[in-house]
Amino acid sequence: MQPHPDNESIPRYSQRPLPSYRHLPFQNPHPFLDEDGHSYGEELNPLEGFGSDNWQESTEYLYAIDLFNHGYWWEAHERLKPLSLGAGRETETGRFVQGLIQLAAALLKLSQDDVPPARSLAELGIANLQASADIGLGIAVADLIAEVTACLDDSQAPQPIIHLDGVEEH
């Protein structure tokens, strides 16, 4: 499964531009650490107070969903980490975001044909999403799980797309 980052039918929830390339570990410059990285020098810090009552206003969350949807799975998982930490990793919101992080990592592995680790990460991510499904953060959890599962079962399945309920598309 390969992403289609330039597909204009994929929704956008933020107005931030997408990175100039998808990071693939050990294949191109590290986005934050390499001087040629697309986000060189940028620091990501925990976003205190992120939660189910304010996710719609979180530009970082909306951007992370854009990254996820457009196949920037490494970048999405990095952008989601501060949200999980800010919410509290042991909170329901923190676990839900951790599930999204694990799904992004699974899809990255799957795009690199590294199927066994992709399955393991997807199972962990699905378990975290299901355990905190009431949080939702605008995501139709059952639909996302079905799309990820389809990708794991069929290499020709389309990449999962998160459709956020209650947020205007750009």
Structure, explained:
With 170 residues, the protein is mainly α. It has a domain of 99 residues: Hyaluronidase domain-like. It is built from five helices and no strands. Helix 3 packs antiparallel against helix 4. The model has no long low-confidence stretch (mean pLDDT 89).
Short description:
By secondary structure, the protein is mostly helical. The protein has a domain at 55-153: Orthogonal Bundle (Hyaluronidase domain-like), CATH 1.10.3450.10. It is 45% helix and 0% strand.
Set out the fold topology.
Blueprint lengths: L58 H11 L3 H15 L4 H20 L3 H17 L9 H13 L17
Briefly note the CATH topology name of one domain.
Answer: Hyaluronidase domain-like
Q: How large is the share of residues in beta strands?
A: under 5%
Radius of gyration: 15 Å
CATH superfamily of one domain: TTHA0068-like
Query: What is the CA-CA span between the terminal residues?
Result: 26 Å
The overall average pLDDT, rounded, is: 89
**Overall helicity:** 40-55%
What structural class should be given to the helix and strand makeup?
A: mainly alpha
Given as residue ranges, the uncertain stretches (5+ residues, pLDDT < 50) are none
CATH classification class of one domain: Mainly Alpha
Spell out the helices and strands N to C. HHHHH
* Largest sheet geometry: none
Q: From the structure provided, what is the oligomeric state, counting identical versus distinct chains?
A: single chain
Number of strands: 0
Overall, the morphology is: globular
Number of helices: 5
CATH architecture of one domain: Orthogonal Bundle
